[in-house]
Every structure is written in structure tokens, then in C-alpha cells.
């Protein structure tokens, strides 16, 4: 089980979570943000992405304790009050749950389509809700790969994956 750390907005370990509302900043740091209990649970259970750290309020920790136990013991898990969590992130985190995960490297189109039977292609879809909806439907229909043109919203943007 990872070690739990209490944290507040003055703690330097909170710095990475101050970027969650700025998708470009998180992306430059090589990270993406998972928001909410369901999304964080899926992130941890899926195992495709390395979880960098988790920031929770007490209620979310209690709800996710068995999921959190699956993380490597060196993954920081931070606990903060609901007020501190929102203060750190810069907006109301009413879900009480954030995680930072390492962004996978970008792949070449030939690599992405190799062996894929079903593809989805998004061309300049800028709305995060629409991108998230397309990805959820693609998963439901067993799509193997996605190709995104420049100008398409980042599918790992927190609003697209929640």
C-alpha cells in the first residue's frame, strides 16, 4: 500500500496539481490529469499508464482505499481537505479526487494503424466533451486505434476523459 501524506496548498508537493486547469502546462510536464472516482479507479485498474501521484479528500480515499492499494508502494497518495484540494487545483474539485499520470509518447500513424481492424479518425474536433464521447463510443464498439488530426482536442485532457 502506498504511504499516505497529508498535504496543503503551501506544500511544494502540491505544485504539480496547480496545473490541472491548464491542459498545455500538464502536457508540457509529460502528464495528464484524471478527475473523479470512476476515472481514477479505471486509470489504476487498467494499468496502461503509470500513475505519478493521487490527491484525494478523506471521503474519496475511503471510497477508493481498495483501489489505491493496487498502486506501487512508492506512488505518492496525498490527502487534503475538500477546501484545500479546491484551493490547490484552483477550482472546485467537488469529486474530491485527482490523479496525475504519465502521458504516453506520441506514436506515428503507421505504428498506430498497424494491426488495427477498426479505426476512428477525428479531424479538428475541438470540443473536449465531443472527443470524450467519441472515445467512449469507440471503446464500446471495439475500435482498435484512433487517429487525430492537428487541431483536435487532446483525448487525455481531463474534461475529455471524465
Write a concise keyword list for the protein shown above:
162 residues; alpha/beta; 5-stranded mixed sheet; two-stranded parallel sheet; 19% strand; globular
- Summed over residues and divided by their number, the pLDDT gives a mean of 92
Dominant shape: globular
**Biggest β-sheet, characterized?**
5 strands, mixed
Count of beta strands: 7
Looking at the chains present, what oligomeric state does this protein adopt? single chain
Strand content: 15-25%
Written overview of the protein:
The chain has 162 residues and is of the alpha/beta class. It is built from 7 helices and 7 strands. It has helices at 23-28, 37-46, 58-68, 82-89, 109-113, 128-140, 158-161; strands at 4-6, 31-35, 51-56, 77-79, 97-102, 119-122, 145-148. A 5-stranded mixed beta sheet has the order 1-4-3-5-2. Strands 6-7 form a two-stranded parallel sheet. The two termini are 25 Å apart.
Care to give the gist of this entry?
Helices cover 35% and strands 19% of the residues. With 162 residues, it is of the alpha/beta class. The strands form two sheets. The protein has a five-stranded mixed beta sheet with strand order 1-4-3-5-2. A two-stranded parallel sheet has the order 6-7.
Helices and strands in order:
Blueprint: E1 4-6, H1 23-28, E2 31-35, H2 37-46, E3 51-56, H3 58-68, E4 77-79, H4 82-89, E5 97-102, H5 109-113, E6 119-122, H6 128-140, E7 145-148, H7 158-161
Parallel strand pairs: 1-4, 3-4, 6-7
Antiparallel strand pairs: 2-5, 3-5
